[in-house]
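Checklist before submission:
- one chain only
- standard amino acids only
- sequence pasted in full

Submission:
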Amino acid sequence: MALYAIGDLHLSLSADKPMDVFGGNWENYVHKIKEGFSVLGAADTCVICGDVTWGMTLEESLEDFKYIDSLPGKKIILKGNHDYWWTTVTKAKTFFNKHGITSIDILNNNSFIVDGAAVCGTRGWFFEEESGAPHDKKIMAREVGRLETSLSSAAGPEEKICFLHYPPVYKNYICREIIDLMKRHGVKSCWYGHIHGAGHRHAVTGFFDGIDYHMISADFVNFIPAKVC
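Returned file contents:
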């Protein structure tokens, strides 16, 4: 039983937003995802770090969820900035049960014990100064609160591993609120997505301030889930 992670599948089997239009590594990406997930066995688990589907609602995302469900192993998904379908955990689970989707669970204000490790996380927040958008302190406070709840829910002796959508450190950006929270809870490794294309060269991989960072956007890892432990 092993734990894997990947981010940003950006599936669009019903919505009209296929990532193939970007060319390069995204060409034929749906098939690449299927091939990539072949590294998982039936007893393994993969955390999908947000931007799961372009569907605007659960109903519009159904074919994408069915596709994910057909892939090997259990999948734990968290919210990304493009997951417009996102709703309450109860509604999502009810929807999955209704449609016979059995291998997908949701990471939101909770944690999971997998292979002797505590899977914790949330979407996070990313302040892109160059975009001109204001830094929303309310969103930051909400995400820090959700991560605190997730980390605190893992009260056992297991090692806490943090999964985020947004990177807590990128280029000149350092999110002290999230980094300091992870350090207080003894997090030693953090796995994140969100960054694509030319942005890959600015992604932080390796140790920063005592935490080992792993960038696992699908196009960065060639659509093959990375082994966490």
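Reviewer check: The longest strand covers residues 117-122.
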